[in-house]
Structure formats: structure tokens, C-alpha cells
Amino acid sequence: MTTPPIDPTSTSAWAALDAHRSGLDPDLRGWFAADPERASRLTRTVADLHVDLSKNLVTDETLALLVRLADEVGLRDRIDAMFRGERINVTENRAVLHTALRRPPGAEPRLVVEGQDVDADVQAELEKMFAFAERVRSGEWTGVTGERIRTVVNIGIGGSDLGPVMVYEALQPYVQDGLTLRFVSNIDPTDVAETVGDLDPTTTLFIVASKTFGTLETLTNARLARDWLWETLQAAGAIDGSEESRQAAVAQHFVAVSTALDKVAAFGIDPANAFGFWDWVGGRYSVDSVIGASVAIAIGPDAFRDFLAGFHAVDEHLRTAPFDQNVPALMGLLNVWYVNFFDAHTHAVLPYAQHLHRFPAYLQQLTMESNGKSVRWDGTPVTTQTGEVFWGEPGTNGQHAFYQLIHQGTRLIPADFIAVANPAHPLRDGETDVHALFLANYFAQTKALAFGKTAEEVRAEGTAEEIVPARVFEGNRPTTSILAPALTPSVVGQLIALYEHITFVQGVVWGIDSFDQWGVELGKVLATQIAPAVTGDEDALAEQDPSTRALIAYYLQHRR
Ligand code: F6P
Q1: Which domain holds residue 541?
Q2: Whether the predicted pLDDT of 362 surpasses 90
Q3: How far is the CA of 157 from the centre of ligand 1 (A)?
Q4: pLDDT tens, residue by residue, 176-195
Q5: Which of 183, 212, 524, 528 to mutate to test the pocket of ligand 1 (most atoms within 8 A of CB)?
Q6: Which catalysed reactions does the entry list for this protein (predicted)?
Q7: Percent of the chain whose pLDDT exceeds 90
């Protein structure tokens, strides 16, 4: 029996927040001047993450009301239900247990859900993946000619791509020398052609990563990669082209990661070379499952275990910390504050760490596929605006591109600034510590956004009066600063878990199922229906609406 969502707008906390917002005139300059303890009072820690919330447009009363809202919508019960393995993914009738993937070996009490010993299953699959990773890393696992593997190509899309590629980039210093990962995701044939075209087939291993093993893009790319492997191995004289030699090539050069091991076998990959997981792991929550196999090969089992431990530390914090100290809860509630009480449409995530350059793209799937919903988990319409657009680029590139709009545009854009104290490459430019200079930008931006620059300050610089308005910075642009000692595997796991839980908290307040993604279905179905028209079927073309028909006609006329 599903607990119906509580309409947040019907709570007394919502009414109080409404009244509070009407009377609130954000004044970060004034608030900081009047309250020397503001920064320390509004800073929280979770695991290795130091999170300064003080430059948000909140007072103590705001936070107290947001925490009350969390209580009134039943956030604690929902968190407990998730960790217990209840089927809180209502529309797919599934449990949501990505947190089980990072429970340490031997965790007590054991997690058994609906008769499944989840801990035992998770550890068994991880050990299988680690054993395979060690064989590849040591050179024991070879291609058909006996050469060790030097390049691993992950073929997947969405959660079966964005997580592994983001983490691989984030943990570059931990990648074993002589091993490289590449990623193929798009069904645009350019992707697979350019990603594998220059590789040596004898030293290449493909991982076909697909939760369902039914995704058109991934299966098409996997077949193209398999054809490439067969052709190039045969051209090199490594196989003779017979059926047996082709099967032997697939056995040595293809492994799979999926919840559908029967479909893996049907593709021709030996189930012995496949790693499994379960329907209670959502695609966008799966990088910590065997979907991370490419990462496990690259960084090794020990670093991968540290990565999982980072997630787990944040999971335990979400599960146990009171909401006024609970970082994911507070950050999720702040996002609700901005979306629903300041009409914020977007949220920037700005990593000041080059290795996190794919983190915003990763977060786009996590947050927007999770919370881009118009109905609640009982099918009734939502009662508020929901998911905001997440976006970002690494600092300082963004500063020279889109920060103008964040500083002086008409829209409020809450932003998270993420940095680490120690860079991967501590270079000096003469006397200057370049990373320190980089971080000076990180500190300067949130300061400028919060406190701005008044007309008096602009005039005091001798600015001509007619230019003064253009040079004024309003300030009161909200930011959260997240700092960590270094970008270790654990810290990367912590950051991912933090945003997973922020997303969940927002979904609970809005009463939506953050774990389904029905909105991607229609486009997939229509693509299959339209495909014959695009390949020249006149009848299928005639059935299309006038705009689609004309667009396809343009394509047919212009293709060579
Ligand atoms: O299209 C949406 C989606 O289902 C995502 O949720 C998922 O991460 C992606 O497709 C890939 O799915 P799969 O891992 O099953 O290939």
C-alpha cells in the first residue's frame, strides 16, 4: 500500500514560508555585518565536505521553516523507507536501493529485502568485477593474440555512460599507467567511428553497459564495434574470419554489464563475462554498481572501494543527521526555497577543479531525469513548480562565458561552487602558485555574487555618472560553497551521493517519484515508428504530420 504524497502547499510550514518570504528583503551585506557568526553558524560538514551555506538568501528563521516543511511532508519516513528497500519507485513498482551498493562488506545488521540477501548479492558481484578488473590490470586477461589490454571502451548511454565517464575524468591521477578508457554513447555513427577508429583491436576491450540491454543506441554501437573488431582483427591476420574465430574474438574482447543477462547471452557475450545488477538500481544511480566496471579497471579495486566508502559516509549522514545539520536535506530544501519562493528556473553547478569538468553533465541526468515531473507518485498533478534546469562548466572558463548573466542578469540563479584544496598538478608560474590563483577566483566569485558593488562604490572609483548603473552589482545572488581536501575517490563518491540525496529530498517535498523516467519513452517509440519514413518508405512518410514530413523530405533531398 503506497503512502500518498503530502501536498507541501497544504502544510502549515508552507504557509509560514510564504508569509516569511513576503516579509523578507534579502540583504547579505547587512546580514553579515550584523552577525559575525553567520558564516560559522551556517557552515556544515559531511564526511570530507565543508559546506558553507551562509551566502544563501536565508535567515535562521528560513532554515527553521524549511526543516519544519521537511518534517511536515514526512521526509524522515521517506528516507527510512528508501533505506529499508520499500518500493518507493511507485510507478515502476520497484525498491530504490542504490545505497545498498555501497554498504561496506560485513555491514550489520544485514540488509535482506523481500527475501533477497542484498548485501551478499552486492558483495558477490563486486568481487567478481574486481577479480576481472585485476586480471585486466595485471595483463593476465589478454586479447585473441595474447596482447594485454591497453584500451577499454565503454559502450553505454545515459546512466550507463555519464557516471563512468565523469568518474574516470575526475580520478585521472588514479588511473593505472598504460590503461586508457574511451566512451561511446551517441548513435550518431561519428561517435563510434571516431572513438574506435584509431585503436589497435588486439589490445582493446569493449564493455557493453546497459541496464536493460535493450537500448537502441547501445546495441547498435555494440554491433558496430563488434563488426569493427572482426574486420580489423581479420585484416591484421589475428583471426581467420571463421565463425569460431569470431566467437573467440568476442569472448576475449567483449564483456557486458546488465540486469538482463539473458539478452547479453543472445548478443553473443558469454554470461561468464558479464556482470549483473538489479532492477532496484536506477540507471542514473548506477555508477557505483558494476556499471562502473570500466572505472574499476582503470583505478583498481582498492580505489573503487574508497569511492564506495565515500558514498556510504554521506548515506549514513542522510540517514542519521538531524535535518538542521543534514547537508543533503538542507541543500535540497534550499533548492525548493529558490524554485518555489523565488521562481528560480535554473541552478548552476560550477566546479573549480578541472577533473570535475563532466560533473555538471552527469548532474543533468541525475537531477533532471529524476525531478522533471508534472504528476505526483499517486498520479495526481503536482501542486508547485518542480525540477529546475541544472547546468554548469568548470571555473574559470564559465567566468569568461556566462557569469555575466549570473552577476547582473534579471534572473536569480542559485549556484554551487565546488573546489578542492590540493590540485592534481601543483604548478608554479614563477613565484605564483597557480592553483592558489585559481582558488582566488573561486573565493572572489561567491563574494562578488553575495555582496555586489554599490553605486557609491562605483562612483568612488571615478566612474562617469552615465556608466554607473551598468557597473553596479546588486549582490544577493545566492551561492553554496563546497570545499574538500582533494579530489580522492572517496570525495568523488561523497559528491555524487550528496547530489543524489539533494535530488531525492526535493522529490519528496514535491511528492514526485524521482526514480522513474517515463518522459523519455515517447521519443523512443516515435523514433522507431519514423525510421521507415527516413529510409524511404513513401507510405510511412505520408503518415507524418506536415512539419515532420517536410523535415524528412529536406533530409532525403540533401543526403548524398
Ligand atoms: O533513456 C533513459 C534511460 O532509460 C536512462 O534512464 C538510462 O540511464 C539510459 O536510458 C540507458 O539505459 P540502459 O542502461 O538500460 O541502456
Answers
A1: 519-558
A2: yes
A3: 6
A4: 999 999 999 999 999 999 99
A5: 212
A6: alpha-D-glucose 6-phosphate = beta-D-fructose 6-phosphate
A7: 98
Could you identify the residue written with the cell 570545499?
A: 483
Question: Rounded distance, CA 336 to CA 388, Å?
Answer: 9
DSSP string, 265-325: HHHT--GGGEEE--TTS-GGG-TTTGGGHHHHHHH-HHHHHHHHHHHHHHHHHHHHS-GGG
Residues 236 and 185 in one domain: yes
Specify whether 145 is located in the same domain as 257: yes
Rounded Cα gap, residues 57 and 25, in angstroms: 9
Same domain membership, residue 355 and residue 286: no
H/E stretch holding 495: helix 489-510
Q: Is 306 domain-assigned?
A: no
**Dist. CA 90 → ligand 1 center (Å):** 18
Q: Whose CA is nearest to atom 9 of ligand 1?
A: 158
Per-residue pLDDT of 492-503, as tens digits, reads 999 999 999 999
> 364 and 455: one domain?
yes
Q: Residue of the nearest CA to atom 5 in ligand 1?
A: 158
Measured CA to CA, the distance from residue 165 to residue 178 in angstroms comes to: 18
- Residue 3: pLDDT band (50, 70, 90) is confident
Phi and psi torsions of 483, nearest 5°: -125, 145
Domain final residue pick, 475, 493, 510: 510
Protein residues with CB under 6 Å of any ligand 1 atom: 157-160, 210-212, 215, 218, 283-284, 369, 517, 520
User: Do 363 and 333 reside in the same domain of the chain?
Assistant: yes
The arithmetic mean of pLDDT across residues 531-536, rounded, is 93
Q: What is the pLDDT of residues 202-258, one digit of tens each?
A: 999 999 999 999 999 999 999 999 999 999 999 999 999 999 999 999 999 999 999
> 249 and 348 share a domain?
no
CA of 209, closest atom in ligand 1? 14
Q: Are residues 26 and 134 in the same domain?
A: no
Q: Is residue 106 part of a domain?
A: no
Instruction: Provide the ipTM.
Output: 0.98
Q: Span 322-335, mean pLDDT?
A: 99
Residue nearest to atom 6 of ligand 1 (CA): 283
CB 288 within 8 A of CB 98: yes
Cell output for 337: 526555497
Residue 78, in any domain of the structure? no
Residue 384, pLDDT above cutoff 80: yes
Record the cell numbers describing residue 520, joined without a space.
523519455
> What total number of domains does the chain contain?
3
| Residue 13: inside a domain | yes
Q: What pLDDT does 1 receive?
A: 56
Q: 283 and 332 share a domain?
A: no
Q: Which CATH number fits the domain that encloses residue 279?
A: 3.40.50.10490
- pLDDT (tens digit per residue) in 414-435: 999 999 999 999 999 999 999 9
